[in-house]
Amino acid sequence: MPSDIGPARLGVRWIDEGPPARAEIVVMPRNDGDGDGYEVTLGGTFPVGDETWRFADVDVKNADEWRVIVRRVDEVMAPPTGRPGAAGHFPHEDQPR
């Protein structure tokens, strides 16, 4: 489901639990019908207009229910938790990275 952020709407075309976790994030500017897709690994950045955003975290409950969290780069970013997916690929908060 697309989300509104500043000058654009974002959608996620696909995710791969990895490791490392990856996603294709689609940026759809409000003033222009064309969107651009960016393949980003967890912690990676992508442009949204004049801003830079980060693929900050992912929460996978199962293959059909998941959520990607993005943050503007100038925001304070908590470390990714990598909540365990169906296959348990993501580390827990108490494990070293």
Tell me what you see in this structure.
There is one protein chain. This protein has 97 residues and is mostly beta strands. Helices cover 0% and strands 52% of the residues. The protein is built from no helices and 7 strands. The strands form 2 sheets. A 4-stranded antiparallel beta sheet has the order 1-2-3-4, with no helix packed on it. It has a 3-stranded antiparallel beta sheet with strand order 5-6-7, with no helix packed on it. The protein starts with a strand and ends in a 25-residue tail after the last strand.
Largest sheet: 4 strands, antiparallel
What's the total count of β strands? 7
In the predicted model, the low-confidence regions spanning at least 5 consecutive residues are 86-97
How is the largest sheet built, in terms of strand order?
1-2-3-4
Question: How much helix, percentage-wise, in residues?
Answer: under 10%
Give the termini separation. Answer: 30 Å
Q: Tell me, what's the shape?
A: globular
Question: How much is the average pLDDT?
Answer: 78
Evaluate the radius of gyration: 14 Å
What structural category characterises the helix and strand content?
mainly beta
Q: Tell me the fraction of residues in β-strands, as a range.
A: over 45%
DSSP summary: helix tally: 0
